[in-house]
Amino acid sequence: MSNQKLEEKKIGSAPKPSIGSELNEPKIERRSFISWITFAWITFAAALGGLLTMPLRLFFPNVLFEPPQSFKIGVPSDYEIDVVDLRWQDKFGTWIIRNTEGIYALSTVCTHLGCAPSWLENENKFKCPCHGSGFRKTGIHFEGPAPRPLERYRIVLGDDGQILVDKSRRYQQEKGQWSDPESFLKI
Predict the structure, then answer these.
(1) Residue 165 domain boundaries
(2) From CA 158, how far away is CA 174, in angstroms rounded?
(3) Domain presence at residue 51
């Protein structure tokens, strides 16, 4: 037989590949397969480890660190008459006001929805930026949706001559508590 016929016979005898047979039978090497399986197991173990650490969270409760509720603010002579002192606003949420009769501590929380009013020196009032409630220097509300005046904190003179403010005791004007001797420090 001639070489050409032999080649045709060899080609003719080989099974013809079907269309797309290369796509149906992907060739996965052993090394590649083992690396994918290893990656999958490591991922599974990490996810399972994360889930199993959740119950441990019960042994570490949330702790909220707040400034102390009772603090000293200095001696009465540190405060000017008819001036709103803003020194304690950021750290303790308290305004200290001294008038001719004495000193009182006001809360910096609006009684409407709990926003923080700002002291407007030019207008001589506290103004809440959220809904427009206005409060006089005494804490009495006169405009906006606030349902009641600002609250006062307990304020007393300590044994060492310093003023002590206690935020755990609040006094509300509408309940007649502003007449309590500890809601106002007479000087």
Answers:
(1) 70-186
(2) 28
(3) no
